[in-house]
Amino acid sequence: MEVHWTKTAIGHLDGIYCYIANDSVNYGKRVVDRLTKRSIQIANFPLSGRKVPEIEMDQIKEVIEGPYRIIYYIKSNQIDILAVIHGAQSFPWKKTPYP
């Protein structure tokens, strides 16, 4: 299945990179590379992620990569990466982003 990175998720990756790159550009690149490579697992095994505890929808799942949560929405024809957040951050939505 095809994986689509939303603008929001790309913005999260950019923020993660910029934060880490303040100390180490190489490490920032490696972290973002590891996060984006998880989309291969998500594409091949979309149901392998766990249900997001803050959202009561079976189609929205997450996988963990280091301290980060990669949150995605399973559609019939593609998977949308919705967010990449640090586990210590507050959840980014007050309510479900999809009906």
Superfamily (CATH H level) name:
RelE-like
CATH topology: YaeB-like fold
Please provide the ordered H/E string of secondary-structure elements: EHHEEEE
Distance between the termini: 21 Å
- Major pleated sheet: 5 strands, mixed
Give the uncertain stretches in residue-range form: none
Q: What number of domains? A: 1
Helix-strand makeup class: alpha+beta
Radius of gyration: 13 Å
Please, could you describe this protein's structure?
With 99 residues, the protein is an alpha+beta fold. It has a single domain, classed as YaeB-like fold (2-Layer Sandwich), CATH 3.30.2310.20. Helices cover 35% and strands 28% of the residues. It contains 2 helices and 5 strands. It has helices at residues 7-21, 25-44, and strands at residues 2-5, 50-51, 60-65, 68-74, 78-86. Helix 1 packs antiparallel against helix 2. The protein starts with a strand and ends in a 13-residue tail after the last strand. The model has no long low-confidence stretch (mean pLDDT 90).
